[in-house]
Every structure is written in structure tokens, then in C-alpha cells.
Request: fold
Amino acid sequence: MNKPNVVIINYDLLYEILEEIKEDLSFNIIKYESEKDFIKHENNDLINALVITNLNKSLKKRNVLNVDNFPITLNKLVQLINIGLIKLKFNYQSKVNIKGYELNLNSKFFSKNKINLRLTEKEIEIILYLDANKNMHNVLDLQKNVWGYSSELETHTVETHIYRLRKKIKDKFNDNEFIISHNEGYSLE
Reply:
């Protein structure tokens, strides 16, 4: 499992303290000297990072934990960081866009044009897997990577789930092209 990233800007002492105990932390720490340096090097891994700084002038749209309420204990600081990361994960999961639809992983709603469809956990896993891996996926691939079944197992679980999911989406949104079924397997493309 990937650890979330915490970016520390312009707090050398805080970075050094956290660096000493990094094995015990549930997050990665990354240091930048200035906000300009951070913005210049920001990549996809850092877009959803929690940023700790006391200079949040240009970081208004980022997830900033302003810790100018020092002194606080190290335990309290780590607790504040973990709470910030939980909020960040919750907010990220509340809006995943896939093919013009919005998937809320927290409420398990699939939405478009103010129409909502509640999905099961397995249906969400199918959609996320097909979206993350853009190519065609056959039944054995889905059995292995979504269900964790061995390839020798004879089952129609995948076909049944995909059929029901496609039917739900067709009935609710009149969209027969969200999950595309081919002879070779299934895709979102």
C-alpha cells in the first residue's frame, strides 16, 4: 500500500524531526525550501499531498495544514497530520470522474446529471479496475485482479456481475456504452 505524501515547505527543523522518526510514520515526508520550488516541481504524486507550511499565500487551492500554533507536542503534530490525511483521502474519494460520470467512493453513488445510482463494493471495484487499466480485460484477468480467484476456477461470477452492472447503468442512465463488452473481454473504452 502506498503511503500518502506530506510536503514540508520552509520548515527545516520540523522536517529534520520527522525524518528521524520516519520509520514510525504512516506517511512519506518531502521537503521543499520554498513554495515556488514546490510549485515548480509539483507532480501527480503531490497534487493530493498534505502541505505543511507557514507561508500559504500561493497554496490556497492545495491541502494546507498551517502549523503556526507552536509549541505543540510531536504526538499532537503527528495526530494533526494524520487527521489532515484522512480528510484529504475522504475528499478525494468523494469525487472520482470516469467517462463523464462521478463516482463517490464514500457514499457508493454513481452520478450523472443529478441522477444517482447506488453501487455495490464489487461494482465499484470493477469500474475502478477497468478505468485504471485502460485496455481490454478478459474474464480470467478480472477473476484474478478483482475477485482474487485462481484461473482454474470455473465460474460465471464475472459475467454475471458485469451483466448486472451494465443493466443497472442502462436502466438508470440509458447508457449502453459505459462498459463495453467484446469477444476478448470488457473495457471502458
About this structure: The domain at 96-187 is CATH 1.10.10.10 (Arc Repressor Mutant, subunit A). The first helix runs from residue 12 to 20. The CA atoms of residues 55 and 73 lie 21 Å apart.
